[in-house]
Every structure is written in structure tokens, then in C-alpha cells.
Design goal:
Layout: H1 2-20, H2 25-32, E1 35-36, E2 43-44, H3 47-57, H4 66-69
Antiparallel strand pairs: 1-2
Keywords: Cytoplasm, Metal-binding, Nucleus, Zinc, Zinc-finger
Organism: Zea mays (Maize)
GO molecular function: zinc ion binding
């Protein structure tokens, strides 16, 4: 009987593990990305990333102020 109980317990644990991994990383990423570059429409998470993005991708342009990005 212990083999049967161990098998049932293992199946239950595996089912719990598989339930926790539901959802995709892309959905979680979309929630965190709130700022959009006005030139190339890249989504960024915060103001620092936006200024770094403008410095590397659009060096001739000036980054927008914080009030116009949200």
C-alpha cells in the first residue's frame, strides 16, 4: 500500500507545481511596462530606462518630460 500512497502523493505534488506555473512572462512584462517611446514605440518600465533609451537610440532628440510620458 505504501507504493500506491506515494504515487498518489507524488501526483498531487506535481499537479500543485504545474498549477503555480500558469501565466506567461509576457503578460507580467506588459503590466510592468508603462512608458512608451514617442519615436519608436518601445515600451519601457521607468524614467531612467527612457533617458538611457533616448541617449543610445535617439541621441539627437531630447527625452520628453515625465508628465508627457504617462
Amino acid at each position: 500500500m505504501t507504493r500506491g500512497k506515494q504515487k498518489i502523493d507524488a501526483q498531487r505534488r506535481n499537479a500543485e507545481r504545474n498549477q503555480k506555473s500558469k501565466g506567461s512572462q509576457l503578460e507580467a512584462r506588459a503590466v510592468g511596462l508603462k512608458i512608451v517611446c514617442s519615436i519608436c514605440k518601445v515600451q519601457l518600465a521607468n524614467e531612467k530606462q527612457l533617458t538611457d533609451h533616448y541617449g543610445s537610440k535617439h541621441p539627437k532628440e531630447k527625452p520628453p518630460s515625465t508628465s508627457s510620458t504617462e
